[in-house]
Write a structure and sequence with these properties.
Order of helices and strands: HHEEHEHEHEEHEEE
CATH superfamily: Vaccinia Virus protein VP39
Mean pLDDT: 96
Bound molecules: S-adenosyl-L-homocysteine
Radius of gyration: 16 Å
Structural class: alpha/beta
Low-confidence stretches: none
Number of strands: 9
CATH class: Alpha Beta
CATH architecture: 3-Layer(aba) Sandwich
Number of helices: 6
Number of domains: 1
Strand order of the largest sheet: 5-4-3-6-7-8-9
């Protein structure tokens, strides 16, 4: 079983790499950094989805996780992680813990991940799951991600995994100069734009469009 899953993850990684090659005209990324690829090979995605959809855990698709929420498509997780350019000393904030899968992938690449989830039950489940699987450098809290998590700011990067019309102001404030935010921007019932926002050393903000994506909406508390 374990071996099969390793093989499934390797196949999934091939698919992700091939989708990256075909979208690199837009994303500017032709392949994943070796570290991000390693993290995807390591994290057991099947342990982050409900039993009913476990069979599809290594398909390149978003899956339902209850509470009308989803675990993102692996290609999108891979691309967003790569766009963050995570470094081993980084402290990262995630908005939208969901299953905890994206947080687990990031935790393999950085020093500490803080993750906010507005649905209390999902927050509890994700924290338990991450602990059980040994992803100890992730802290999950129930809360409204639009307000950020000021206690641990400033963050080296911030990843938002739910869609809003604009990036919440608190998140931009909690990003360190030189850092980046990756987020889907746009209306909920449509395709959104995956965007990379950079804050330069003088605090100036630039946004770059990367790719059309589909996410569940970022909720108001
Ligand atoms: N990153 C997740 C996928 C997230 S789906 C994973 O790897 O599985 C988006 C999540 O954002 C959902 O769980 C949803 O409940 C949560 N969410 C929506 N609005 C939010 C908000 N304002 N603050 C925090 N979390 C929010």
């Amino acid at each position: 079983m374990g071996e099969n899953r390793e093989r499934d993850r390797a196949f999934l990684l091939d698919e992700i790499e091939s989708e990256l090659r075909s979208t690199c005209g837009m994303t500017g990324r032709e392949s994943l950094s070796p570290q991000v690829a390693q993290a995807l090979l390591k994290v057991p995605r099947h342990a982050f989805v409900p039993r009913e959809v476990e069979w599809a855990a290594y398909r390149n698709m978003a899956l339902p996780i209850g509470h009308r929420q989803t675990i993102s498509q692996p290609f999108v997780v891979a691309l967003m992680t790569d766009l963050l350019d995570p470094g081993p000393d980084d402290v990262v904030l995630e908005v939208g813990t969901g299953s905890g899968y994206q947080a687990a992938v990031l935790s393999c690449l950085v020093k500490q991940v803080y993750s906010l989830e507005i649905v209390g039950e999902l927050a509890v489940l994700a924290q338990e799951r991450l602990q059980r699987l040994g992803f100890v450098n992730v802290e999950v809290r129930e809360g409204d991600g639009c307000l950020g998590w000021a206690e641990h700011a400033p963050y080296d990067s911030i990843i938002v995994t739910a869609a809003a019309a604009r990036i919440p102001k608190a998140l931009i404030e909690q990003l360190r100069p030189g850092g980046a935010i990756v987020a889907p921007l746009g209306e909920p019932q449509a395709t959104q734009d995956l965007v990379v926002l950079r804050k330069d050393e003088n605090g100036r903000i630039r946004e770059r469009f990367v790719l059309p994506v589909v996410f569940v909406p970022l909720r108001d508390a």
